[in-house]
Amino acid sequence: QILKSIQNTVNSNKINILNNVYNKTDLSNVTNNIIKHVGRNLHLQKNHPINNIREIIEKSIDSTSSKPFIKYNDLTPVVSIKQNFDDLGFPKNHPGRSKSDTYYINDTYLLRTHTSAHEVECFQKMQTLQNNGYLISADVYRRDEIDKSHYPVFYQMEGSKTWSRDNSKENFNKIQTEIDNMKKQLSTFQNLSIEDVDYTHEPESVNCKQSHMTDEETSILISHMKRTLELVVANLFMQRYKNYASSSKNNKKGEEVIPEIKMRWIEAYFPWTQPSFEIEVFFNGEWLEICGCGLVRELAYKNAGFTKETQMGWAFGIGLDRMAMLLYDIPDIRLLWSTDERFLKQFREKEGIFKFKPFSTHAVMSRDVSFWLNTSVHLNDFMELVREELGDMVESCSLVDEFVNPKTGRKSQCFRINYQHLDRNLTNEDVNELHKGVEKKLIEQFGAEIRN
Ligand code: FA5
Ligand code: MG
């Protein structure tokens, strides 16, 4: 695995990823710092928290169906722009397509920004596999900010189930039986509270049913999808509360009281699902979005080669890193990438979900950099420069000040970088040296004039 990742390289005109060579174009913006993560496959690393969460979710989902879902866990992260965006109906001007949000390899390929990039190909495969459900787990890549909960590489699990629209009683009964079984499982959790939301019944809304589907089809599929995901979330949090001695309290009779698991459904929008929803969990005093989903639009089935309006189904995408951090109490997303024994050992020694014991963290040291420019630097471009220069030695980074000189029209920006190494102490001299490197890159890449 390590050998594989070392072979990924970017040079002045070629990009080498997993032994494939791509010619660079003006659109190329992947960096060495990013592609060295390709091939790490934390989702398949035995005893790794991301792998553990994947296994628990796979098991929950398989328990809803008589046939196990097909698992695709080693699909390559290099996909075409067509797979990632066009086939899913992303409009040409969708912000997700922009160079400041996405890592492009060249004019044809990119590093997938979500596991949905494989939906259409999985629907194609489904036609010969005689199985209507699949799960995909994989690394996804997004240019994003830098803080304790954002990393440019993270893991998602995608899931989907499809039925033919034959309108038979038998078909509906099969779906209803699965729903009833899931409801039975859900009713065994006494401490569950779920706030639901219906799809919009206004025919003009983005969240109404698809016009070719009936109300009956729409509601039964939504119910099947929601109960499946509620079960996933309930199983994960139940394991957490059971294994966290500190979070369960005893009542007057001395029995253990498990905290309430609170979730809610909200309406959402994705170009390839309709209606669409998100599930949120109430945790540590706030609502956290953990999973997007919806009924697959006809457009996706059509792009997979299905005959017009013969299929119906649902799809979801859940973030595995966020779930792992919540459930194990992992305070910094960079830890997931750590090869430090103090991190890895804890997951080898215990099974399932437990409370992670943070080990001594090193001091955070802040430095500001202020500079003049004719045009401002996009936040994500600054973040990328910092990542490329500092790798995991930056804990977080933010824009602290910005103004325009009214006479010259020139822009001034000030960014704060919080330096911290996970495994060792950085000295003042180390940080000064690193910070000089960032200033040098700003001058080289953007023609910035550093203010002192
Ligand atoms: C998607 O990526 C859709 N592909 C999900 C989907 C699939 C919708 C199938 C409909 C049908 P979104 O960008 O919201 O949606 O990400 C999905 C989940 O990934 C989020 O709920 C969150 O748990 C996780 N996630 C998103 N961005 C980050 C990030 N920067 N760091 C960690 N986790 C993230
Ligand atoms: Mg979202």
From TrEMBL:
Mitochondrion among keywords: yes
EC class: ligase
Catalytic activities: tRNA(Phe) + L-phenylalanine + ATP = L-phenylalanyl-tRNA(Phe) + AMP + diphosphate + H(+)
Cellular component aspect of the GO annotation: mitochondrial matrix
Enzyme Commission numbers on file: 6.1.1.20
GO-annotated molecular function: ATP binding; phenylalanine-tRNA ligase activity; tRNA binding
Protein name (record): Phenylalanine--tRNA ligase, mitochondrial
